[in-house]
Amino acid sequence: MHNFNERFHFSTPSTLQPDLPLFVYLPGMDGTGELLRSQINKGLSNAFNIQCLAMPAHDLSSWDQITEKVVGLLRSQFRRTRPDMVYLCGESFGGCLALKIAIDAPELFDRLILINPASCFMGQAWLHFGSHLTGWLPPPIYALSVMGLLPFLASLGRIARSERNDLLAAMQSVPQPTSTWRVNLLREFEMDSHELSRIRQPVLAIASTDDRLLPSAAEATRLAYCIPNAKQVLLPNSGHACLLETDVNLYKLLKDHDFLTHPKPISAVA
């Protein structure tokens, strides 16, 4: 029998509140789902029943396999009753996964939130070059390289020490082969304007203007242009891991941009 942590599963970072809209968080490269915690007590847990995806540390599934597993988890959740509103929120790597789910199973959610999605990774030449080196580094050098990535992943001056430690711990929890595999997945990821135009749900593309890892602001502009019901929100001075920043409040962003209203679900176009 498999250990629970060796399977894809949803964790609950706050008290279950099934009467509230469901908020499904798809994490970044770490795959832990733990890094949403800093947002829980900023109003998010008062508005949503929150579920965070956790991916096994040693999982080497393809995009299609990951998508199938998460879709299966969601359908299992809805076996008895589907919540009136389902928000799908993908950050970085999870943003790519959210887009895959939006195309493959649009009936499973009503609103989509994309936070610095890594859907533009393929166009970054320096990341392509650096990512090819990841798998060849000796383990001690790889461990040091993880620490060296911190300034690219986050605006450290905007993040409390405890959140910095959480970010480093989450990054170090991913074994080198898994990290290399997930980077390879990002290199392969591609979604053209025709596919994006099939997404009919309201979409909020949140992007950091000082993202040193990816051109997130430009990608948010592209997504807002290609997806019919999308709009972008720019976070000035924020880095890639913006949800860890003290001054970033995801609940307030959703509220300020009218993303907390609950209209009847839109029928998705297949």
TrEMBL record:
GO terms for molecular function: hydrolase activity. Gene3D superfamilies: alpha/beta hydrolase. Signal peptide: none annotated. This is Alpha/beta hydrolase. Keywords: Hydrolase. It comes from Laspinema olomoucense D3b. Residues 61-247 form the Serine aminopeptidase S33 domain.
